[in-house]
Amino acid sequence: MARRRIIAGNWKMNKTPSEAVALCAELKDLVKNDAVDVVYCVPAIDIVPVVEAVKGTNVLVGAENFYIEDKGAFTGEISAPMLKDAGVTYIIIGHSERRDIFGENDILINAKVKKAFAAGLKPILCCGESLALRKAGTYTAWIRRQITWDLDGVTADQVKDLVIAYEPIWAIGTGETATADQAQEVCKMIRDLIAELYDAATAEAVRIQYGGSMNAGNAAELLSKPDIDGGLIGGASLKADFGQIVNA
Ligand code: PEP
């Protein structure tokens, strides 16, 4: 079974609503490709205008964060049902910036994965090691532990609909990309782990992205690897280059 490629932009905290609509217009013709899932993961305040701006195109909208309760006294937060109702399809969970800057741990991340599925959203679950762990050679154990915790209680059918993004922290926003072989090694290890935790069919179905300074120049080589089914793209998702990555 061939897995469908998924190229997702992570806009982070970068576009005002009017800038977001302008970026959708700039990218509209560049990201046309019916063979690929194209996703813009945008700041919460941009979701409604971006959903409107991409209507009638091949682009799906994702969110960057939510809180695990459906409603109530959680000042400043938004819920998964709110995202779903606004037209969101994908949700980034466990990004290293949320783990490191906002202190999100694997217990919360696991709750978010389960809540996202319950609300009908598809998680893009991020994992990845720091430079220190890469240098120490313990990155495989680290990533296995992250994924095992984050998927505790998640069913095989849900995992078939899951996207896992392998994002080495040392490659995020640094201009330093993992080599295609380094990225493939970890993406294969993740697929093997899913086979171990679930079964071969689930491992075959789960889509695994690479993320970390992916750009128009290196996307084709990374995406040519057998266990890399797409990319999660930060910096390069905010410019025309994103169209070249979608069509790499
Ligand atoms: C990211 O933060 O998800 C990311 C991959 O960023 P960049 O492409 O800028 O390294």
> Could you say what the CATH topology is called?
TIM Barrel
CATH architecture: Alpha-Beta Barrel
**Can you tell me the CATH class?**
Alpha Beta
Tell me the number of structural domains: 1
- Specify the number of helices: 12
Low-confidence stretches: none
Mean pLDDT: 97
Which ligands appear in the coordinates?
phosphoenolpyruvate
Q: Compute the number of strand runs.
A: 8
Spatial extent as radius of gyration: 17 Å
Q: Terminal Cα separation, in Å?
A: 21 Å
- What coarse outline follows from CA principal-axis ratios? globular
**Biggest sheet layout:** 8 strands, parallel, barrel
Structural class: alpha/beta
* Major sheet strand order: 1-2-3-4-5-6-7-8
H/E element order: EHEHEHEHHEHHHEHHEHEH
Helix share bin: 40-55%
Fourth-level CATH superfamily = Aldolase class I
Strand content: 15-25%
Keywords:
alpha/beta; TIM Barrel; eight-stranded parallel beta barrel; 8 strands; binds phosphoenolpyruvate
What would you say this structure looks like, in words?
41% of the residues lie in helices and 17% in strands. The chain is an alpha/beta fold and 248 residues long. It has an 8-stranded parallel β-barrel, surrounded by 4 helices. The mean pLDDT is 97. Phosphoenolpyruvate is lined by residues 10, 167, 172-173, 211-214, 232-236.
